[in-house]
Amino acid sequence: MRVLVVGSGGREHALCWALAASPLLTKLWCAPGNPGTAALAENVPIGVLDFSALVAFARDRAVDLVVPGPEAPLVAGLADAMAEVGIACCGPSAEAARLEGSKSFAKEVCDSAGIPTAKWERFDDAAAAREFVRRRGAPIVVKADGLAAGKGVVVAASEAEAEAAIAEIMEAGRFGEAGRSVVIEECLQGEEVSLFALSDGAHAIPLGSAQDHKRAGDGDTGTNTGGMGAFAPTPALPPALEHAAMDGILRPALAELARRGTPFRGVLYAGLMMTAEGPKLIEFNVRFGDPECQVLILRLKSDLLAALFAACEGELAAFDLRWRDEAAIAVVMAARGYPGEHVRHTAIRGLDAAAVVPGVQIFHAGTEVLDGRLVSTGGRVLTVCATGADLRAAHAAAYAAVDRIDWPEGFCRRDIGWRALG
To answer: Where in the chain is the domain with CATH 3.30.1490.20?
Structure first.
């Protein structure tokens, strides 16, 4: 098979790494890719939202399968554009991708399907939103309704903090069109976990669970980020609760979309809060998470390419996935200042020394080669991953690798997996 991966981050490097190992693969491209994907695939200088160029490339190269990484092209209709020319794309249509593209749409699906989630209301008017906050009190959650790169959510501990979030999102326009309306919901209490499934539109199989670390600082302090690390599997979602969440949250959502005439094909990711009443949905995402993808991929024993193509072909009913017993951990190394203004084009050394630590795999995200040197270009720059017999062993290996990387301008959290490690 000839495969095109779309994206340029650590998630896409991990996808290329897994796809490159498939005996079904004959040719792999990544658009636009990064220095890490270049070692596994042929990078193509096409942006993720340049659909005309992506479609033309896929047609010219007789691509059999397109694998989108990030959410923006899916919400904008990449799968639809590929479907128009008869090319399989393992991702939902733009209509189905509204599960992530619109918080209020996701909530409406939950209400229709009886999925447990936080009580919520949507507002187009900032004054009405502020009045609602004053009536309900804090803690309370304010979310930009549209896509905000994982940064449009404020868990407000006070009414003043919630009102400031409303002003920033709706009036200051921090997230542009995505913040024209907001969803305000009750603040659920518990431990947050991520559960992933692969759907062919009619059937869904679990892809496993993981826990992400959103805050920039140790002990879950500091600003929300796109994700500073993850581990899998998570003891917070044992097998019985995973089955319950599949049957009570993910499968009902998929059934509701099918009922509406927009069946979902691809990876569906549910952010769950493990409340005293059981798992409740925080949000849906319509693709692999980053860095959750990295830890899930490291534990996958089965052929990822065969699974993704089966989802496109409607053949998951009898499909099964096998997983390694090892635990996996991912530590994100970010540029100083992230998630705000951060340093760029700083030299990174020592990756070869880090990569020889047993069990370690390093995925590139915000890197490029400049004048023969590997330099940082983004906020999240590397994902240093490791597997081990248990989470403690994986943790030790990942941080041993981190300590071999010579990048003074970078930082990472030193406590990834702390909840499970105790």
So the answer is: 125-180
Measured in degrees and rounded to the nearest 5, phi and psi for residue 261 equal: 85, 15
Report CA-CA distances (Å) from 228 to 23, 213, 325, 347.
Answer: 33, 5, 24, 20
How sure is the predictor about 224, in pLDDT bands with cuts at 50, 70 and 90?
Answer: confident
Please answer whether residues 130 and 172 qualify as being in contact, where contact means their C-beta atoms are separated by less than 8 angstroms: no
**Hey, what are 340's tokens?**
């705000």
Stretch(es) of the chain classified as CATH 3.90.600.10: 327-421
| CATH match of 2-89 with 3.40.50.20 | yes
The yes or no reply on domain 327-421 and CATH 3.40.140.20 is no
Looking up tokens 């020394």 gives: 353
pTM tops 0.90: yes
Between helix 126-136 and helix 159-166 the angle, nearest 10°, is: 170
Tell me the CATH class for 125-180: alpha beta
Single-letter amino acid, residue 88:
A
pLDDT tens, position by position, 242-266? 999 999 999 999 999 999 999 999 9
